[in-house]
Amino acid sequence: MFAWVIVGLAVIYGGLVALVYLNQHRMIYVPPVARSDVPAGFEPVTYRTPDRLDLAAGYRPAADGMPTLLFFHGNGASWQSTAFVTDHFAAAGYGILAAEYRGYSDNPGTPSEPGLYQDARGAWQFLREQQGVAESDIVLVGNSLGSGVAVQLATEVRARALILISPFDSMEETAARQLTWLPVRMLIRDRYRNDEKLPEIGEPTLILHGEDDSLIALEQAQALATVRDDTTIEIYPGWGHDLVTNDDVQVKAMAFLEDQPN
């Protein structure tokens, strides 16, 4: 009887492992309901990725002499929500390309780690080739999931700076902390190894993280900050994974950028 119980539990556990493995992309990528509104000051734009997907996003040109943010949002967000969390930047004259991903905001394609990297390349090319923004005037910003996209792009280009809000050291570490009862490190396909890539990056880097973040632990951001000695980290007591909505994040980020050479 005991043996049958063990077998039954093993079958159930195996089924759960298979279920998570087969549905991991649905668990990692959760697009919100598509919005049709265009935030004030932004214009809807479309750019093409290297693998030939046309993605809808939002763009706000910079005032003369001001940098432009290339902003990669987190999961459950959209390009329109980027306008809300960059309003102080906009008021200061910064340009903003609110990038969007495949499979989000009614865009074609299915999100994946390689796919989102292609989306980032398309956004970069839009700024460089269609808008004529110089590399030295582009600031890469990634929030949560977007941190993995921004870090990868920073390994391929030379931007003005890199700002990471609520970042992870790796997606597999994030998943392993959330699903402690599963062999996540063996199962996960989209790993987003920020910790392995950050040492390759030459851009000045700022990390901002909430002390009480229950989705991406503060320890992950601290671990990421240690892989490169000159990384600056700001910790916000009492804040969780919604840190991007804290106005002081924009204030600190602008002060950081003002301290960097042009």
Outline of the structure:
The chain is α/β, with parallel strands linked by helices and 262 residues long. The protein has a single domain (2-258), classed as Alpha/Beta hydrolase fold, catalytic domain (Rossmann fold). Helices cover 39% and strands 17% of the residues.
Q: Explain this structure to me?
A:
It is a single chain. With 262 residues, the chain is an alpha/beta fold. The protein is 39% helix and 17% strand. The protein is built from eleven helices and eight strands. An eight-stranded mixed beta sheet has the order 1-2-4-3-5-6-7-8, sandwiched between helices. Helix 5 (113-130) packs across helix 6 (145-154). It is globular and about 70 Å long.
Task: Explain the layout of strands and helices.
Layout: H1 2-22, H2 24-28, E1 43-48, E2 54-60, E3 68-72, H3 79-84, H4 87-91, E4 95-98, H5 113-130, E5 138-143, H6 145-154, E6 161-165, H7 171-178, H8 184-187, H9 194-197, E7 205-210, H10 218-226, E8 232-236, H11 247-258
Parallel strand pairs: 3-4, 3-5, 5-6, 6-7, 7-8
Antiparallel strand pairs: 1-2, 2-4
Helix pairs in contact: 5-6
